Please model this.
Amino acid sequence: MSEQTPPRRAGTQRAEQGRRAPHGWPHALAAVLASLAAMAVVAGLGLWAAGAADLPGGAFPSVVAAVVVMAVGGSVGLSGDAGMIAETDAGLSVLPLSVSLVGALVAAAGFLRPLRHRAVADVRELVGWAARIAVLWVLLLTGLGLLARHRFAIALGDGPAGEIGDLLDSSPEVGFRTDVPLTLVFGLLWLAGVLVVALSVSRGAPLPARLLRFQESVRPAAYAMVFLLMSYAALGLAAGLVVAATRGHAAETFAVLLLGLPNLVWLAFTLGLGASWEGRVDGPFGLPMPRVLDEVLRTPADSTLSLRTLAEHDGRVWWLLVVAAVLVPTAAFLMAARSPARMRAWQHAVHMAVALALTVLAVCLLAGVSAHYGLSLLGIGDLGGGLSGLVELRPHLWKTLLLAVAWGLVSGFLGGVLARRVHRRGEVRPGA
Model:
């Protein structure tokens, strides 16, 4: 006869399990609030360092909210108004990835914390826990979206544009507001991506029984890619702190670090692989980037951004190739070392190629920039004062993905060979 658990004892076990793995609404609220608060702090400090605290009309909280909304993929639209016979045109598409990265790390930690020290989780349990977080995320993101709206008046100055503007009573304004429904859609997709990546990377997070067979191939590769991206972020942070301490303009440097560090270092990551981007910088506005990038892109027509074109202005950019040649094989070695010993080198190569291609695809989709602003009176664009600007940066996608696959195959095979002598966790050596 099989031994059956008494009802009272089973109830006690369920209660103890509930205490070990809390999934209640208070815990979900804490996770969501912590993530959004961390993003707001980073965005606020970055904007303060950039001088946005002096914006007129008490706009600073609205701008901080807009940056947080943009960081989770939300839609913040620009609009302009310059009177009956004048027009303004503006558009902005950019992710402040420093804010995104901090929010993702905090959200992932809050999601995984109640799931620690367990081997398997029920599908209903994981879905219910994620659903609680998602519901509260939607509510708080809606509030941020409603806060993220403001309008600014633009001074035309004392030149011809100012005189015409006064004559025609056409003082230009530009503002921003959040498309709340679209923001909620992309915000939920961002949250879902963060939670999936968190489950994929963490060794200690439980998975449903049906998914356990995928963890041997997915989790080591996901961990290696997170290691790779975070290594670039750490190197970029160290370089930025050195620049801030030795070359002056500390406020501007910290603004870039707090708002767009991954935008720069992950762009550098793809360039180190041999990828190329295309773009242009025109007008008084520009990208928060090193001067050499601005020099390459500030041309009348679109320019190609690559190691070769950058090296024409600064030969030190070839170090990006060296960094990639060190970090990518290191990530491949870590992936192979965390994989089961029975896997062959060609399997590691395939896993690394797929993982690196997906990672580079994500970088290309997230790090692109498109921003423009223009003013016209009586159909004449940019009436003096340099009030029009254009900033664009987009990848040569298919070439970049093919390079990522090639790097992944070579580094994955090499990592698999080098990891053969590494003792895996849980592996029993012969004769032990």
